């Protein structure tokens, strides 16, 4: 997987025997000694954190599958049994449920890091694209998993999301019936969702291998964003172990503290109370919302007054990420040296949070209560509907207008020749 | 290498090309034939399709109310509309805000105009609209804010179509058969 020269020397007889037949120890050793840019900051620790998240979800998920029953009559009760009767079942389920949220916190920060430091630019486009595939699979897996407890939010979430496919002209309806295995969400749907929910994490794991392969082939980006020339490798790179195993390890401990706060002290804070009501196909909860990590995309769906248009916008919001490497016209990778772009980036992050917030509100509710407003086209200007539309507009403009234009117009700051230069020239205390 | 030997002779190369294409096509065809039963198995099973029709006694619905029944896993609204509601929907038969223009008569059975039978899933994304709410006296969908009138016609909001009238018939004066 890694392209650097191997420094592994088999010591024992067993290692020598193995090394000529299946060099798996060499593979691991090379992986650990991988030259890594020495200036990586804590934003680079989310890769390791995400690997831990995936392992946590798979491990807890396999155990949960031993107790869970994928049948509409029994699913809800089997989850309650896990919570009440299975030894440590509540801990395992809360870890799995909150683990999904933690996974998304980490993946969003990981993606924003890539966006800020230009980690998607040549020669790293494939790392980014495989990452987008992983993100999409994560959304699919999380959605499928949320259906399994067969509560009210499970059922109606599944109803709404599968109906998105029904919005496709002509072929939508047959595909919808095929996907559900019947005219409505029912036992057939629950069974196949369970099967796919078990499958997809392993597909994600396969994609993670591709992600890392591409990463180790193209080389890691770094906060300065410059490619490290071969002759500087000795000066600017350090082995992955122990330098970054320790740094990643420290970040993982901090992350696990946050994780533990949720699991042990507020396990239902990120969930929704309605999902503790068994699914009822005859009654929709008064206010259905997806899990928090889907809210920005849900908001975009609702911003468009046309059904199919809304579906296209929502998938487009994820799809645009795939072509990001070709939308950014700037040669400079790191936004550290792009003062104009940095401002637009900060606005983008704020807009993302606003979209998430809007996704959880009723569209017709007033943003500023009591403020007089007038009706614009189909809704009050002072409503979440119009705030969502403005935010959606910025979201797409960021990719299709701002990134291409700012890249051509802006004057970047001078870029250091080496990653050591900004450190050494910054202050005297680093010299010597 | 065999290829380099035969390269000069056009006949042999063409025969090899033909074998490649034929083998490739056979492999693709065989794969499709193997995959199709797997895909088709995900379509509704025979027992699911068997639950096709139900009967309902209309005397169970009081004037001004609706009864929700389950048909093929989906809710069906059976609504007995009051004279005032009926008057309002007929007055709106040609309203300009109808996205999918239909008269109330087209959505009911002759002689039974007071009864409206529609699928209880919002045509936007399938939520169950709540009875008697919204701006038009019909239903309001809590999910994404679609307003329906008492004829189940979409008047405002993201839903693209009127509430679907399922196939049904009056088997007697007071009983209907859906499906």
What does the model show?
The complex is a heterodimer of chains A (432) and B (179). By secondary structure, chain A is an all-alpha fold. Chain A folds into two domains: 1-9 and 23-288, Cytochrome Bc1 Complex, Chain C (Up-down Bundle); 291-328 and 339-411, Helix Hairpins (Orthogonal Bundle), CATH 1.10.287. In chain A, 62% of the residues lie in helices and 2% in strands. Chain A has 17 helices and four strands. In chain A, strands 1-2 form a two-stranded antiparallel ribbon. Chain A has a two-stranded antiparallel ribbon with strand order 3-4. Chain A is globular, with a radius of gyration of 24 Å. The model of chain A is unreliable at 427-432 (pLDDT under 50). Chain B has two domains: 2-40; 49-178, Rieske Iron-sulfur Protein. Helix content of chain B is 28%, strand content 23%. Chain B has a four-stranded antiparallel sheet, with no helix packed on it. In chain B, strands 1-10-9 form a three-stranded antiparallel sheet, with no helix packed on it. The radius of gyration of chain B is 28 Å and the shape is elongated. Mean pLDDT of chain B is 88; it is low at 1-8. The A-B interface holds A 156, 159-160, 162-164, 166, 177-179, 181-186, 188, 192, 281-288, 302, 304-308, 310, 362-364, 378 and B 39, 42-45, 48, 68, 70, 72-75, 120-121, 123-128, 130, 141-145, 156, 158-160.
